[in-house]
Amino acid sequence: MKLILNEEQNYLKETALSFVSEKTPVSHLRGLRDSDDQLCWDKEVWSEMVKLGWSGILIPEECGGSNFGLTGMSVILQECGKTLTPSPLFATGVLGATALTKFGSEEQKQKYLTKIASGELTTALAIDENSHHNPNICELKAIKDGSNYVLNGKKIFVVDGASADIVIVVARTSGEDDDVGGLSMFLVESDNSNLKKVKLDMADSRNYANITFDNVSVDETMVLGEIDMGLEPINEILDVGRIALSAEMLGSCEKAFEITIEYLKERKQFGVPIGSFQALQHRAAEMFCEIELTKSAVMAAMQGAEENSNDLQRLSSLAKSIVGETSHLVSNEAVQMHGGIGVTDEYDIGFYLKRARVAETILGNSTFHQERYANLTGF
Amino acid sequence: MSDLENFRIEVKDWLDKNCPSTMRAGAPAETPIDEVWGGRKAVYKNPDSKLWLDRMGEKGWTMPTVPKEYGGGGLNKEEVKILNEEMFAIGARAPLLSFGIWMLAPVLLEYGNESQKREHLPKIIKGEIRWCQGYSEPGSGSDLASLATKAEDMGDHFLVNGQKVWTSYADKADWIFALVRTGPKEPKHSGISFLLIDMENPGVSTKPITLISGKSPFCETFFDNVEVPKENLVGELNAGWTIAKKLLQHERKFISNFGLAAGMGSKKDVISLAKKHFGEDEGKISNPIFRSKVIDHKMKEHAFGLTLQRAADEGGKASAVASMFKYYGTEHNKRRHELMVAASGVNGLAWDGNEFDDSEKNLTRAWLRTKGNSIEGGTSEVQLNVISKRVLELPSG
Questions:
Q1: Which CATH number fits domain B243-391: 2.70.98.60, 3.20.70.20, 1.20.140.10, 1.10.10.10?
Q2: Cα A320–Cα A326–Cα A330 angle in degrees, nearest 5
């Protein structure tokens, strides 16, 4: 496993950087927030991303994608993270595309994957039921009724859940609440009248919803994968998501750090730039080291996914956990080192802090992944 | 068959014939183990250690990338990888540990003149001459450039007077590479030269320093009217600081690698000690508070190992990043030993006697020894200064 990007991946990264610098600087997110935009992302921007082929990076060629791989997708998200660019790329292009590519029937792939690639369809993955991510627990039930399944229960904090056309929901089809074997996935079209979505207003101004399933009936062609497929295959989707999200979080860390270093060079107090003070220099240098370690962990996870590493679960948890910890360090220090303006809404650095914390909770925070890493390692 | 495949077969064959059985995995447990540093004063408990060194030295494979005319192996990167893989496959012991290889040879290749390269590199590679490093002085630690050991130009030679401190294994070394002041009137960085000194010269003496670990890996080294030939000056007169800094990068990289490598794959690691002394519960370390510290530590260790790998994959962009590895590697190694001691409880603090086994007594001393890792070769604080200034380009105070 080589921990470097190839030429094409580097090119993609550069393209993404110039795209987000031009089209979606942080002021873009600020504008969406200030106008109380209910979508929390911009259709125009999304259609341009689709034109660049980003929606189809994880989709096979026969379904209209480029099958370019997770590293390519992750470096795009890393650049999106630098300007906190909101878009359906994560929930649709990563989670939805991966779930359907890995487990979709031919019919489902033709029907949905092609539309994801063409930008006509967005998705959301509904998995969490509690304030902490824990895919082992699932109370939402799907009960067979003739050729249909009837879903009852509630999912919370569904990323892009407020707008997605298709909700991919993890439901219990057998066993007790903590039996990881009795889980299945269903595709639910979001215009189903028994699906109740409540948009969440979160600190990072992105698109989330709580979704209640009140006798939602779907026919058996909407089963994604096998009935009672269990948590293991679902975890494959989650790990892809965790790695891609880690890359986005890394990008945000890198940019928040860069902005802070620039500020240390500009801001003068006592007649000198504050960056000449050793108290700040050493903290900055320590952050540099932590970010370098984080880059390596994220790179290893991306490349591990490309190569179907048998250590992928551990690499995924390593990346998500370390990027979470580094996000804490960097976002807090970034605000502190900006002094007074760091805690004003007018200045952008606070947006990085808010996004860092919300992103950390998605698909498992650092402690979740620390526990998982230790269990997988055998201690 | 490709050249590389042929090369692999040659290497396998050569190792098979030349690597003594006691120098590989599967050697009898009672085989005495030498830490081979070479040099004129070397003593070997196992004659195979010397044989293995001589054979590898003859091939130039102790420094496989160095050109053959200087005694090296003349191999390219792919060939070195194959050599390492094949040595790893049979569990071959390192034939030679050497400051000459890790620190001096790289700067001689870059700054030495042709005759210096031809004179010194083959002896380093064959382990005939053991080198030590004369940098720090009692009054010049982190402020290394303030060093006062002087070398006066006496026409046909330099006359050296002064004292060095923290010279690793100076009592066992044959030659010393030293920073000396040749320009007393110049600004401090511009009056330093890089000089090679034979320690058999009259006037050179050494005295070991006992550390808190009870061991004495360092010495004080004294120069009392020592005559050094002019030809032993490396680079230009008063241009030694550049060479000194370059050598420090090699040293920092080595110290950080060494700290990490020593800990990885070892059975006496934090996890096994914690399981032994706290017990396990379904495979988990029983003490949950300690376990969470171990988790954090092991994940950082994993990420640091990946960072070393990434740096290699990127082509080893050394310079200031060497400071990161030195800083992080040594601080991490200190934390690792703290955790091993804490995991072992009372048994992690044993000093001597028969109530504790050797690995426990060694752990105590190893733990104490790590305290020096973040001081020698530039303190952690100096490394953070280097990162701030060279990488982040923050303004000087």
A1: 1.20.140.10
A2: 140
Contact A194, A218 (CB under 8 A): no
**Cβ-based contacts of B310 with chain A (< 8 Å):** 3-4, 295-296, 299
Rounded to two decimals, the pTM is 0.89
A370 interaction partners in chain B (CB closer than 8 Å):
292, 295-296, 299
Chain centroid offset of residue A328 CA? 17
| Residue A244 and residue A358 in one domain | yes
Positions of CATH 2.40.110.10 in chain B: 131-238
Say how far apart CA A22 and CA A52 lie, in whole Å. Answer: 15
Q: In the structure encoding, which two tokens stand for residue B324, read together?
A: 């990161």
Whole-complex ipTM? 0.95
Chain A nearest CA to B128, separation (Å): 38
pLDDT tens over chain A, length 379 residues: 899 999 999 999 999 999 999 999 999 999 999 999 999 999 999 999 999 999 999 999 999 999 999 999 999 999 999 999 999 999 999 999 999 999 999 999 999 999 999 999 999 999 999 999 999 999 999 999 999 999 999 999 999 999 999 999 999 999 988 889 999 999 999 999 999 999 999 999 999 999 999 999 999 999 999 999 999 999 999 999 999 999 999 999 999 999 999 999 999 999 999 999 999 999 999 999 999 999 999 999 999 999 999 999 999 999 999 999 999 999 999 999 999 999 999 999 999 999 999 999 999 999 999 999 999 999 9
Residues of B in contact with A322 (CB under 8 A): 299-300, 303
* B324 touching chain A per CB within 8 A: yes
- Structural contact between residues A349 and A334, judged by C-beta atoms closer than 8 angstroms: yes
